[in-house]
Specification:
heterodimer; A: Rna Polymerase Sigma Factor, Chain: A; globular; B: 2 domains
Chain lengths: 198, 137
Amino acid sequence: MAHERNALTDDELVSDFIRGDELAFEELVLRYKNSLYQYILVMTGDEGSAGDLFQEVFLSVYKNASKYQAQGKFKAWLFRLARNRVLNYFRDRDPLFSLDQTDEEGKEPLHEILPSGEELPLETLERAELAQDIRRAAEALPPKQREIIYLRQYMSFKEIAEALNLPLGTVLVTGHRAIKKLQHILLKNREVVYETVR
Amino acid sequence: MKPCDKVMLYAYGELPEQERISFRQHLEQCAQCRAELKFMQAQQAALLAPAAPAKLVDAVFSQTTRRAPVYKWLGAFKPLWGGVLTAVLAVGLFTGGWMLEHRPGYDSQEVLAYMAANLDEEYQTFASDLAQLEAEF
């Protein structure tokens, strides 16, 4: 039976759950627990709050599953629920909070962010700490760019556009800027390390 | 869209098959795109989601699918909770109203006569105690 649930689509699991199959709900939790937790954690930057919000999101799914309209977009629905929780979390602290507020740098033309022809730090970063450096750099991205970079780990750009209710073009441009910015931060960090050693 | 603009979609596997083939040809000639592609692949690997803490998943299950049977049983009747509460309130109001209407009545003359008789008796006891006290001191 467990094997059969693995093979079901999200919509089929939601439908089974609404009909009373609680293990279908558990399958959905297991399917998305890692990506959802990572998303909430990188957006809040706080493990305790991320844990609370993670539970709240799945409790909300449990209580409101019947409100989901099956269109093959469960993932987008789930991450939209999570995003709203994250936004509320920040708005409780700052009523004027918006994910856009620190995006100014992301609006720079791409060529200003990374001058063309500049050598990428790949050769120097190809070492054990590379992944760690990238994660650290990702934390320094503006929230909106960070959000899209991480969401793209779990869903397509089209699904992100649905989850965030944004035009696909906006998502693609923000994703591209995020990657350029990431490279820029890594370059800068390399310079800082170089200056420190010298 | 220029070929170099497609590197992100290629890296994330979102280019249609035909464009993927032509982008591979472009990659052979474009060092910048090759470097960007390599970076994006490293970035994807670096940002892979770690496992969510097991205690969090257990906490979700213990509040939902693995709750104590009594809570699950009560939860199953959740749609009826409003109706049950309304019925209890209605019964309470009706009973209270009926009791107010049917409380026992008193004959005021009877009550006054009883009070006078008993108060008098109590007063006499008190007066006799006082006289005894005064005699002793």
